[in-house]
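Schema walk-through. Below, the input block comes first and the output block second. Nothing else is stored per chain. Lengths vary across the set, and this one has 507 residues.
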Amino acid sequence: MRNKHSVILIQPQMGLSGEFSRHLPLSLLYVAAALKKLDIGVKILDTRVIEADWRCELQKLIVDCQPLWVGLTVMAGFPTAHALEISRFIKTFSEVPVVWGGAMPTVDPASCLHEPSIDYVVAGSGLSSVSMLAEAIAAGRVDDFESLRLIPGLGFRFAGNTHFNPRFHGFEPVGYTDLPYEVIEDYSVYGQIGSNDRIFPIYSAYGCPYRCAFCISPALYRDFSPKWVPIAAAEAVDHIAFLHKEYGATTIYFYDDDSFVNLDHIRKIVELLKSRNIKVKLSFRGARIDEIKRMDDSFLELLAETGTEMLHIGVESGCQRVLDLFQKGIRVEDIIEVNRRLARHPKLIAAYNWIVGTPSETIEEMRQTTRLLQQLIRENQRCFIFQPNIFRVVPGSVLGEKAIEMGYRPPASLDEWINSEIEQEVAAPWLSEAMKSAIRMLQVTSYFVDNKADLLLQSGSLKDALIRCASKLYRPLARFRFKSGWSAFLVEGALFFMAQKLLKRWR
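--- output ---
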């Protein structure tokens, strides 16, 4: 008999992208907050931090708790593959309902619900939806079609057919006092590689108003009005103060899609932090070139003075044609100008994201990007670049339509999604073998062409020392490959990916 007062929420593994930094599963805490109001207890199983076999722990947890349902937060790419593995495993020993929420079931609920091991999908924000679903399951109303039809964003099977309810188009804010931080048993397992800081993610704003052609956000917020909603500065600072006092937070990671839509929003937050003498480091997930261009030196200095260390910035490309294709609304010259401006503030680290393998992109255009990145590194010694994001088709995006024109066939099932989207696979009908080879080379060398190892690996551990040493030894060859585009005889690629697997176990 299922426990009407218990739900298990699962965080799938993230693949390589999740090994650089590992934050506590904030989205699951939001869901837990909604369930808490119904007096439903929540167990969170984060498979990223389990040292033993996650299957044993999950099976024991389900058998012991007999939960009302099991929920997974699912992003595209590697997380989809692991979430599917988890869901299928659950069905080998239990009939407990499996519910998927997050980005993947929002942009393609049909593929998710086509999978037999998934019983329900929730599209959109989903907090009120999961609450209503929990009540329906607890009350035994899942056989009542009309009851299920009332749940916003719910996808379900009924009488042999699949049904998808209209989404709730808006944000569902949760006050920090409602977040049940106590359900996380061990906070020491979260943080950034090479750092001993206690890093906590928070939201200071919801949504994103921009229309980048490659991004999932326009698809997620298409019918929202407004598309970006800031949290009151005082509340955000109260949240930071709470985490600092109660959990020893030393770094706050702003998990916003974009924090700087309105510069006054962040200005008020950092000024309040300063006036209240709350000493924490700050890192921002969402920052745009055009937003930083609007920041004068006094604003940047204020960010630095109040603990800001890292700005994650979308460069995306060094080719103007590709930037225009992305609908970024910026020029290559803007990127260079912003990087030089940030270089004048040595406390700030610019971390640049970029994309390769875009439909219609040529090798020469990709090399324009690598040449720009090399210039950024030369002119700002404290900047670094992430591993390139391989272009992935987002259903409903502008570039998704372009990809279809160039021979892309949207996956018809989750298995097809996984085969085409899983991390490190370079597969698209518009990519030549030369492009694929060049992308694989960039995946490896991008880790070593800058000073990120010295900037980030400062814990003093033996592992960090070994990584820094390996980086310095390989850097000359990495830079030569990166600069010249020479991708032949990439024997170090196999060693690189093998080392990453070993380091993951060591972490």
